[in-house]
Design goal:
2 domains, Rossmann fold, Arc Repressor Mutant, subunit A, 20% strand, alpha/beta, four-stranded antiparallel β-sheet
Length: 226
Amino acid sequence: MRLLIVEDDLEAAEYLRKALREAGHVAELARDGEEGLHAAIDGEFDVLVVDRMLPKREGLSLISELRARGDTTPVLILSALGQVDDRVTGLRAGGDDYLTKPYAFSELLARVEALSRRTAPQAADTLYRVGDLDLDRLSHRVTRGGKEIPLQPREFRLLEYLMRHAGQVVTRTMLLENVWDYHFDPQTNVIDVHVSRLRSKIDKGFDRALLHTVRGAGYMIRDGAR
């Protein structure tokens, strides 16, 4: 799952992003309402997590603008304002759920996952298939030839991104930004290590390889050998 966190408290935002990454998701940060609005318009996110009290543009104004533009991305509002009237106002402004600060991360995670499931428009958006390899985004289940393949959260996210772009070359930069949420090159072999582990799980013991290295370009997942 890919999320946008709009939060001006840097410490709180970094904590939340780290926790979401450890849960196997990708999260980007925006530190004020204007930055959050532009990021939401330009990016493709499964869920937005928006603080209500923000500089430059208040959170409810951000949400209202997105809804006016026809953007239906689900929004979880975070706020220290927890009275009934506050929650009602937030939901009427276009929020899909409302969580009062302070919150437990386990509850926030459950809520954003529920929002992602609730708004999934059709099975084609949640199920990916390449050859006899199947990935279900909702159940986090991967099978090949009917055999279940257990994956770590990062491996699952890597495979999901590759399968979403099946038949296309996926560059290292694309993987760093969309799977690891890095916007710089960490100068490590983290991608090579994870691709190698993933390849051993989805290809080893099967009659044909699905995950291919494209020399000098990146990686590609497709049915059949080149």
